Amino acid sequence: MNIEINPERNEWSKLIERPAVSNEHIQPLVKEVFAIVRKNGDKALQKYTQLFDHIAIDDFKVSATQIAAAEQMVAEPLKKAIQIAAQNIRAFHSSQENKAEKIETTKGVICWQEARPIERIGIYIPGGTAPLFSTVLMLAIPAKIAGCKEIVLCTPPGKNGSVNPAILYAANLVGVSQVYQVGGVQAIAALSIGTETVPKVYKIFGPGNQFVTAAKQFAQQLGVAIDMPAGPSELLVMADKTADPDFVAADLLSQAEHGADSQVVSVLASEDLVEPVQQALMNQLADLPRAEIAKKALENSRLLVIEDKEERIAFVNQYAPEHLIIAENNAEEVLQRIKNAGSVFLGNYTPESAGDYASGTNHTLPTNGFAKSYSGVNLDAFTKKITVQNITPEGIINLGETIELMAQAESLYAHKNAVTLRLKKLENEN
Amino acid sequence: MNIEINPERNEWSKLIERPAVSNEHIQPLVKEVFAIVRKNGDKALQKYTQLFDHIAIDDFKVSATQIAAAEQMVAEPLKKAIQIAAQNIRAFHSSQENKAEKIETTKGVICWQEARPIERIGIYIPGGTAPLFSTVLMLAIPAKIAGCKEIVLCTPPGKNGSVNPAILYAANLVGVSQVYQVGGVQAIAALSIGTETVPKVYKIFGPGNQFVTAAKQFAQQLGVAIDMPAGPSELLVMADKTADPDFVAADLLSQAEHGADSQVVSVLASEDLVEPVQQALMNQLADLPRAEIAKKALENSRLLVIEDKEERIAFVNQYAPEHLIIAENNAEEVLQRIKNAGSVFLGNYTPESAGDYASGTNHTLPTNGFAKSYSGVNLDAFTKKITVQNITPEGIINLGETIELMAQAESLYAHKNAVTLRLKKLENEN
User: Fold this and answer.
1) Contact, B84 vs A402, CB < 8 A?
2) Residue B234: strand pairing partners
3) Which residues in chain B are closer than 8 Å to A114, comparing Cβ atoms?
4) B347 shares contact with chain A (CB less than 8 Å)
5) N or C: which end of chain B has fewer CB within 10 A?
């Protein structure tokens, strides 16, 4: 763990650096997989599933029977927990609905926006060591609230050729009926292009490894929207003397266990906190099943002491963390000056894991500094807004000359004429 | 103009096709320009401006004196028109501000979203035949309302080595002080990377030719956000017997004059409308300065008759037009069933040119069917939302077990421990 005490501002750009994640070397493979999926459809999915996942799959669609059967295979307490989380996520994302407000910009000129669901969306749930049923909730619940008509979930087949029951249970609970056992680049290609079995969608959501990330970038170039660019997960903890070193350490470790490439940064208000936080890290690390992964992540992580509060806030804004814990006195006041962050956790009793699972906020968030320009996934991510204008005869009389003058100055005479004709017609009528 | 009467549904996919706009052949050039701009900064901008624009520019920054001088060079009536348009655009985009609503998802668990401006944004205004001062208003006004701190405008140098006065006047009117005379791929590279003169930004907005489009796509791969993917401009007019054929023709021509690749589609409710619309097109075309361009666009355009109202609406939703005029009886009722469109114009007195300039809605809109997944530019495009959660001791007691169970089921024990530690501490305190 790299410790820096009151680093100079000119060192900050080094301290906010994330490891470079170029996937240029993967791009030719991605391009090829897309081309073959376009050409051969399901046959190509079978081929790549055999090649990359080492499993022969005939029918990618998970049957209604399989989905229903999953309910019996999930323990009751976990089902109850998933239900509570789903309820909170639903409550928070439902509160994000906006009413259309009609504005009369000029007498007789009424403008407004109307939200519409994106009709077909795709959700990618990675395979790997942990079955990410929580991500099913985070993506499918707002999609349902938005009113997306078709929700297509792809996830790699498990080693035994079937999908983890908790994933199927979560999907069924929130009303997702289209689940396909296909993962990796071939899944993103199928969602982007469509095959005999997997429908084409307009926007793809969800996390994934560098292959999935490269595939989503390629999909975007084909005109398919994606949720956001991806990078390794991150947490920054701001802590002053009101923080509890045990909690700080626990939160840092909960980020560190995600992967060896996880970014973990603590920004402490005083040198006095360094020793207790490090001690707590050591104590807790010993008991963790994923201690090896966490240790690797900690080796690359940073522990900074920045005594000046203004400077702490300025550093955080430059770093733009995915997750930000503010374990400081007057955390809400600090929040008001945070400009760049994905999701913020206030005070000592708001661990990051609450947001990962059950507080109700979304855990699909911008990493790698993208919080400077991207929101995390929210209800808006599943809708688009149509603008509407309704102009009365009085309105076009009021605004007509303005439009004519501007169109003429941009040398667009047909634009002008569309107004002139209407004004003439109204003149002749009077 | 291709005329189709009640085409079968299985022909629709052909009828909604846009001309393919692959820019793969440009990508190596884009990559090279970015690399050289990264290496040589301003020197590279000078080199490419000489090479592509055939002008030697020493200082790309347009001085405050030049910006102020522009005011004298714009005619008073046009200035007045620009001011009225600016006022309407400001009124409409200001109405899009959302208040943060705090939600208690579980007793003691409070969640909300807070909007923050994207701190640095870039605006690209193309050169070419028409000086697009209207686009300056459409992009800079919502940026100002959102509170973007740095707004950087790039536009190619004019033939005489200076920027069109109407562009400078519009920029100054809305408070943009950073204007740079640099265009094309090199401008997008400068905004993405930063040079000695041009600051790096986090998101780039604005239209452009296929070079600019390819450069924005490349910027996106580097992690710079962009407004949306681009394609040639489009208009679809729905018209029934309540429509005025002269107005329909005028609107179609106002789209057609944009460029030979403009997409113009009319969907008529009756064959009786075909002859009058075609006649009006011929009559009006004769008087247009850009008749040659418009004629070419019309050659590729489509005139469909779809008698059934449900079918007309279904066709429009499949096409997903950038601009949609509903010149039908009960236009608002039709609107309620429109799922995919960029901006909608209701009734006979709402020409597309009103939205292009002055009604108040934005004219930066999704083309090429992207209205299925993208909104046009609005206030949201200049902000991002941070989610926040604040959990009290009571809250973590209420929600703790749910989080522990889910974390454990995903094999993330440090996530679980961050909760367990807090619950223990609270137990010990009581």
Assistant:
1) yes
2) B263
3) 335
4) yes
5) C
CATH architecture of A392-429: Up-down Bundle (1.20)
Select from A288, A359, A406 the Cβ nearest to the Cβ of B391: A359
Do B408 and A247 contact (CB within 8 A), yes or no?
no
Average pLDDT of chain B to the nearest whole number: 95
CA distance A261 to A284: 20
Q: Name the token pair of A28.
A: 């030719």
Task: For chain A, say whether B119 makes contact (Cβ under 8 Å).
Answer: yes
Rounded distance between C-alpha atoms, residue A255 and residue A253, angstroms = 5
Q: What angle do CA B305, B310, B316 make, to 5 degrees?
A: 65
Contact (Cβ atoms closer than 8 angstroms) between residue B415 and residue A257: yes
What are the backbone dihedrals phi and psi of residue B58, each rounded to the nearest 5 degrees, phi first?
-90, -50
Residue B170's pLDDT is 97
**CA B120 to chain CA mean position, Å:** 17
pTM metric for this prediction:
0.96
SS3 B147: coil
The domain segmentation of chain B, as residue ranges, is 27-100+118-226, 231-375, 392-429
For B19-52, the pLDDT digits (tens) are: 777 788 999 999 999 999 999 999 999 999 999 9
Q: What would the pLDDT profile of A41-69 be if each residue is shown by its tens digit?
A: 999 999 999 999 999 999 999 999 999 99
Q: How far apart are CA A57 and CA A63, in angstroms?
A: 13
Q: Is A405 on the interface with B (CB under 8 A)?
A: yes
**Other C-beta atoms lying within 10 Å of the C-beta of residue B288:** 19
Separation in Å, CA of B51 to nearest CA in chain A: 27
User: Do the domains at A27-100+118-226 and A392-429 have one common CATH topology?
Assistant: no
Q: What is the ipTM of this complex?
A: 0.95
User: Which numeric CATH code is attached to A231-375?
Assistant: 3.40.50.1980
Catalytic annotation present for B323: yes
